[in-house]
Design goal:
By secondary structure, this protein is α+β, with helices and mostly antiparallel strands. It has helices at 2-16, 33-43, 51-66, and strands spanning 84-85, 96-97, 102-107, 118-122, 126-130, 141-142, 152-158, 163-168. The strands form 3 sheets. The protein has a 4-stranded antiparallel beta sheet with strand order 3-4-5-6, with no helix packed on it. A two-stranded antiparallel sheet has the order 1-2.
Length: 183
């Protein structure tokens, strides 16, 4: 089938050329331009997506769908259950109940029930770490006090070097998202 696909591509290129949009300046190419551009972005930096890769991806997805769903764990609220934002800190001048949001998690690949290192990034609360993430009462340590901002958008843990990378800034389009200062 790969030979047939390659033959089709050669024939297509001979009779009309390869008119797929490549990343770059926009041109008026008619109603199929958007689909061609999406395809070009998926294929980039190559000029196309080989049929075998598409077929392999479909097989992998079918395999994933055939697996039994894992059982969900129980969520336990650890508080605070009411977070009051004082009126002095609000745009409206009125106090209100608020919450935060977690933007990223990184977990050590060596996580076990007795020893599980987990890092959490908060949208405006910095980076936190616990070594007993699976315990009944995890103890958290604030790590990013020396950062230029508490706005964290991503975390990546490199187990080979034991290095945690934190990307500052939050990409979510919220009213209080901040730009970052790098990694």
């Amino acid at each position: 089938t790969d030979q047939a696909i390659n033959k089709f591509r050669q024939d297509r290129d001979q009779i009309g050329g390869n008119r797929r949009a490549m990343p770059g300046p926009e041109t008026d190419r008619g109603p199929v331009a958007a689909a061609e551009e999406r395809y070009a972005h998926r294929a980039y930096p190559a000029s196309d997506v080989p049929f075998k890769l598409t077929r392999d991806a479909q097989k992998a997805w079918a395999n994933i769908k055939s697996l039994a769903a894992p059982s969900a764990g129980a969520w336990t609220l650890i508080g605070p259950s009411v977070a009051n934002f004082p009126d002095i800190l609000t745009f409206s001048g009125a106090s209100y109940i608020t919450s935060g949001r977690i933007t990223a998690l990184a977990i050590a690949p060596t996580c076990t029930n007795g020893d599980c290192m987990l890092w959490v990034a908060a949208a405006g609360g910095g980076v936190w770490r616990t070594s007993n993430a699976l315990g009944n009462s995890p103890n958290w340590t604030f790590l990013s006090g020396s950062f230029a901002t508490n706005s964290i958008g991503t975390l990546t843990y490199d187990a080979a070097t034991g290095t945690l990378y934190a990307g500052t800034g939050e990409p979510n389009a919220s009213g209080d998202s901040e730009a970052g200062f790098g990694i």
